[in-house]
Design goal:
Strand order of the largest sheet: 1-2-3-9-8-5
Number of helices: 4
Oligomer: single chain
Number of domains: 1
Shape: globular
Number of strands: 9
CATH topology: OB fold (Dihydrolipoamide Acetyltransferase, E2P)
Order of helices and strands: EEEHEEEEEHHEH
Distance between the termini: 13 Å
CATH architecture: Beta Barrel
Strand content: 25-35%
Length: 128
């Protein structure tokens, strides 16, 4: 069974969001990483950029495919995981922890209501 932490939020596009007050850490789920295969390149914007819920904010490239990344919430990108730019390995080894991509200062907490919690996300990936 896939690791699907209960405290995270999830998108239909397989991003996860971990909320700490108004800061949201974002990454791709274990399911997404396993589906993509080995991630070889990550393209994410610089800190200070604005992101909009459900809009693309970057790209992950694997040996199998190139996939857009979608923002789970709107806000200002306050931190990027710089380590991934030269070495995307953590996305492969630890996508739900060390392989986080960005941190967003959330504009509107109500947007979290549009995301899935673990039980609903589990239903989606169990169908695949």
């Amino acid at each position: 069974m896939k690791v699907i932490p209960e405290e995270f939020y999830y998108t239909k596009d397989h991003e996860w969001a971990l909320v700490d007050e108004n800061i949201v850490t974002v990454g791709i789920t274990t399911y997404a990483q396993e589906s993509l295969g080995e991630v070889v390149y990550v393209e994410i914007p610089e800190a200070g950029s604005k992101v909009v819920q459900n809009q693309t904010f970057g790209v992950v490239e694997s040996v199998k495919a190139v996939s857009d990344l979608y923002a789970p919430v709107s806000g200002t990108l306050i931190e990027v995981n710089e380590m991934l730019i030269d070495n995307p390995g953590p996305v492969n080894d630890s996508p739900m922890e060390d392989g986080w991509l960005i941190r967003i200062e959330m504009d509107n907490e109500k947007e979290l209501m549009e995301l899935m919690k673990a039980p609903d996300y589990r239903k989606i990936i169990d169908k695949k």
